[in-house]
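User: Can you fold this complex?
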Amino acid sequence: MEITCPACNKDAQTEAACSRCGCDLTRLRTVLDAAAAALSSACAAFHRTDWSEALHQAETSWQLLHATDAARLAFLAAAGLGDTPAAAHVQLALDCIETTHRRQHLLQTGKIKPLPGPAEAAADQSYLETAQKLCAGLDASLKSAETATDPASRKISRLWREVSH
Ligand SMILES: [Zn+2]
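Assistant: Here's the predicted assembly.
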């Protein structure tokens, strides 16, 4: 796995020590490997709809490495576990964000052609606005969950704050 040296920021390091500053990278590599392994276990559990296992693995991964993938998965698993209406909402928002990213990627790689002139900007804007509206609505419903008494709602609320920062 290629990593960036945390001491000097030299990227694409594949050896046990940084090629520029000699910093020991083995411990960091172990942490990253463990985070990746937990995340992939979380994904597998998620696909089996084993929410509690997915949540446990995603949280383990998140504690090792604060990556949005782990937080997002933990959030969705918590939503699944709590069976709250927020889960459906999150899914919509994430789908929309993903569509926006995928579309931008297709445009950047030339796989799709931009719409002529102002139409392209309008299309981009509408995708973005939809995603933002969904996120704003989600934020509001999760804020109200902060004061909820059941642990599942509170957990979702806490995870959402971590994902959205
Ligand atoms: Zn270094």
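Residues 5, 7-8, 10, 18, 20-21, 23 surround zinc ion (CB under 6 Å). The mean pLDDT is 74.
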